[in-house]
Amino acid sequence: MDQHITYWRRNIFLFLTSQFLTGITSMIVQYAIIWYLTKKTGSATILSFATILGMLPMVLLSPFVGPLVDHWNKKGLLIVPDCVAALFAIILSVSGVVFHVFPLWLIFISLLMRSIAQTFQMPTIQAVMPTMVPEKEITRANGQLGMVQSANMIIAPALGAVLFAMIPMKFLILLDVLGAIIGIAILMFVTIPKNEKIDEALHVLHNTKVGVQQLFTNKGLWYITLIGAFFTLFYMPCASMYPLMTLSYFHGTVGQAGLIEAVYSAGMLVGGTIIGVFGKWSNRMIPVIAAFFVIGITTGLSGVLPGNQTGFVWFVVLNALAGLATPYFNTLLMAMIQQSYPPKELGRILGVLNSLLSLTGPLGLIFAGPLADAIGVEQLFIIAGISAVISGIVAWLIPVVKNYDRNLQSRLALQKVPKREQNSN
């Protein structure tokens, strides 16, 4: 027993380490590309287009990627995206060396391909996590994954800024290649359990339809998905305007804009740490719903702060609290989804769910710029805050949502009881 515990803990440690290394190098390069676009063009339209390119593959491809994740080799699905990102990093670097410039079309293609690769990678990570740890450790393992992702979000902007100032862009991009090589090398020592063999042929559209039906028939999770999509629609415009809020409304500096991002990510790291260490609740929907209210109140209050440096100090505090609450929604909900379906079905479910949750993001981004120009960037924060609070209220008032985890745990406990005992009862 002790040997088994040691094995899976070592296995998950190597897995998280590989994801940390590939994740941080990829994020540094991603920041570098966005900063290059900012310095080269100074165009909000270009930056918005780049952001949308990063989101569209998730929206359009996720329902079809899910069934592929269920059938294809999981380790391969983790390795190939890193190879794709590394390949386009090499292409961009060669372009910079040979032509001394990075054509916008090549940058956009690179961003699009990186996003497509990530669309395969994220559902795969979410699908393999419950197969690598004991069921009772799923919430804690997801919290640890959230800690890794939060650490990347804290370290990458700061380290990326230093490297961006020290290393020419054409060489900095190659950091993605180094991260991919090290991350893949570590992943080779990770054991990812295989799902049950599925005898029928792979029919992507059929399995996608089945995924939609399975999600729709699970009313609690279906309503949670709709609430999340509503929240994303109004929150995404606000999220895209953080730099403008700091620079324009609070009259701050680029360094202060970076500070806000780091503080928010640090809050996420603390929240993920709390879940990872103490993540056991009898009804995990309660902290999920509470997270809606915390994010809503802190975001809404940010929009009514005075537009000066005193207001900015409070903006920092509010963002730390919002960051602290964010993992409760992401991590706990993911743990519940992973326990709601067998591992062999998770890919198609997560594909559909991720697509629905992401669908409203680009819609919000399309209107973010014109709306901020028309009514003021701070008003977007008030709108986002109100929408988050409404999402929390709706989730609390719908019993099948509020009690989803309690019902899920009862069902799982019943499944563990031998049939003979169930019949005797």
TrEMBL record:
It comes from the Bacteria. PROSITE patterns: MFS (PS50850). The chain crosses the membrane at residues 12-37, 44-65, 85-112, 145-167, 173-192, 221-242, 262-279, 286-305, 311-337, 349-368, 380-401. One of its GO terms (molecular function) is transmembrane transporter activity. The keyword Transport applies. SUPFAM superfamilies: MFS general substrate transporter. This is Transporter, major facilitator family protein. Keywords: Cell membrane, Membrane, Transmembrane, Transmembrane helix, Transport.
